Amino acid sequence: MSELAIKVSKRAQKYINISKAEKAIRTINSLINTLRFLIKDRAGLAGLIIVFSMGIIALSVNVLPIPNPDAMEFTPFIAPGYEHLFGTDRFGRDVLSRVLWGARISISVGLAAAFSASLIGSIIGMIAGAYGGVVDGVVSRVIEVFLMIPTFFLALLIAVVMRPSVYNLIFVVSITSWPTVARVIRAQVLSLKERQYVEVSRAFGASEKFIMFKHILPAVIPLTLSYTVLLVSNAMLLEAGLSYLGLGDPNYPSWGRMIYEGQQLIFRAWWISLFPGLFLTINVLGWNFLGDALTRYLNPRRRTY
User: Fold this and answer.
1) Closest C-alpha among 77, 198, 39 to residue 129
2) What digits encode the pLDDT tens for the residues 5-29?
3) Is residue 271 in some structural domain?
């Protein structure tokens, strides 16, 4: 065995023998470095603040001193003022209360659908990239078929045949969002398989299972997380669009449904549509800022400073 091969073998063995404590320390340091980058990045910091603030609202809305979002106990069409900061709608419901409760629904659906789509897409993408050949060809054709169909119209078609509910909404959004993740992960796996350290590991007798879980999967996870964050905003917009068309869960306040209810009264009660639209826009921008910042962190070539 050559001297170079012996050195590579020793390094590989040293990597394999890393203790769990050392791996935990490396993970913590990586998280700290990511947080530092997000704080220094102006868009990342803005996204972090928005996402954190919206998350606090969604988690604590049930303990905030606001009226019941479905209670019709106030005078209809009260303009925004001291007693009702966002006014009331045509049924006498407090708009502020409904907007804040809508944050919980929008974020919950967005997160659940994004994580589900990322999980499905990552598994399918890794299988296609790892096996190659016929499997890769079939999976690639399926992904192309999904990508050819506009996402919203595909989601609309599926939502029409299903009973409106939060769980069905999550299913519809996730089942129409996974192809983008699958395509990216497949390309990443194909690239990683040709890296030198993977070839060296394979040359020293490492099994494909070992290579997949020790070399490829750890390199794919950060990319998956960044795309998951970006998918959250897309899922929120898709949920709002379906709720706007009356295909959301009627038992819960939704920003999309509130925008629809207020559009017919836009000149008489502009606040009914304005405030949920603003919250939806700010929320989507926050997740986009955060996702773009994470992408820049993982890909230094995209940094502008």
Assistant:
1) 198
2) 444 444 444 544 555 567 667 777 7
3) yes
